[in-house]
Amino acid sequence: MDAYVDFSCFVTKEEWDGLPPLHVDYLPRPVDLVIIQHTVTSTCSTFESCKNIVQSIQNTHMEDLKFWDIGMSFLVGGDGKVYEGSGWLHVGAHTFGYNKKSIGISFIGNFNNDEPTPQAIAAAQTLLRCGVEEGHLSPYYHLVGHRQLIATESPGRKLYREIRTWPHYLEDVSSIKN
């Protein structure tokens, strides 16, 4: 667990009963790119339902896809909690070509269909502030939608519309090299 993240909305890997990584690579810090995604699963509004989805994603990533760990750095539930994935320190497996220089934050649900909850939005914004305060994210980091970097619908139209209003959102990604 990244011990310096200390807010009540943060659910450690131990708390959601996650498996330890099989191997780790470390991210150079501070990171200056945040990629927002969605899981294209059901949404969740309770700790139990979110925990079950996060465990299922980790199982798929590690057993079927043979990843070292769950691919996302963090997952955000409709319950307003942030679930630790590969975390601030470890390279994730969320966006091919960008994993070694970015943090991947995935909202749990399909945001082509659903609106992100105000609690989820607030939790993600708190996570980003914490990342800057703790030195994990550069104060000048850029935030992009998954679809801006690879051919995907992620993070879904409704979430993409939301993140385009956030500070640090970068419209023109041509300066980002993979």
From TrEMBL:
<dbReference type="InterPro" id="IPR006619">
    <property type="entry name" value="PGRP_domain_met/bac"/>
</dbReference>
<keyword id="KW-1015">Disulfide bond</keyword>
<feature type="domain" description="Peptidoglycan recognition protein family">
    <location>
        <begin position="8"/>
        <end position="150"/>
    </location>
</feature>
<keyword id="KW-0732">Signal</keyword>
<feature type="domain" description="N-acetylmuramoyl-L-alanine amidase">
    <location>
        <begin position="19"/>
        <end position="156"/>
    </location>
</feature>
<dbReference type="InterPro" id="IPR015510">
    <property type="entry name" value="PGRP"/>
</dbReference>
<comment type="similarity">
    <text>Belongs to the N-acetylmuramoyl-L-alanine amidase 2 family.</text>
</comment>
<keyword id="KW-0391">Immunity</keyword>
<dbReference type="InterPro" id="IPR002502">
    <property type="entry name" value="Amidase_domain"/>
</dbReference>
<dbReference type="GO" id="GO:0045087">
    <property type="term" value="P:innate immune response"/>
</dbReference>
<dbReference type="GO" id="GO:0008745">
    <property type="term" value="F:N-acetylmuramoyl-L-alanine amidase activity"/>
</dbReference>
<dbReference type="InterPro" id="IPR017331">
    <property type="entry name" value="Peptidoglycan_recognition"/>
</dbReference>
<dbReference type="GO" id="GO:0009253">
    <property type="term" value="P:peptidoglycan catabolic process"/>
</dbReference>
<dbReference type="InterPro" id="IPR036505">
    <property type="entry name" value="Amidase/PGRP_sf"/>
</dbReference>
<dbReference type="GO" id="GO:0042834">
    <property type="term" value="F:peptidoglycan binding"/>
</dbReference>
<comment type="subunit">
    <text>Monomer.</text>
</comment>
<dbReference type="GO" id="GO:0008270">
    <property type="term" value="F:zinc ion binding"/>
</dbReference>
<protein>
    <recommendedName>
        <fullName>Peptidoglycan recognition protein</fullName>
    </recommendedName>
</protein>
<feature type="disulfide bond">
    <location>
        <begin position="44"/>
        <end position="50"/>
    </location>
</feature>
<dbReference type="Pfam" id="PF01510">
    <property type="entry name" value="Amidase_2"/>
</dbReference>
<keyword id="KW-0399">Innate immunity</keyword>
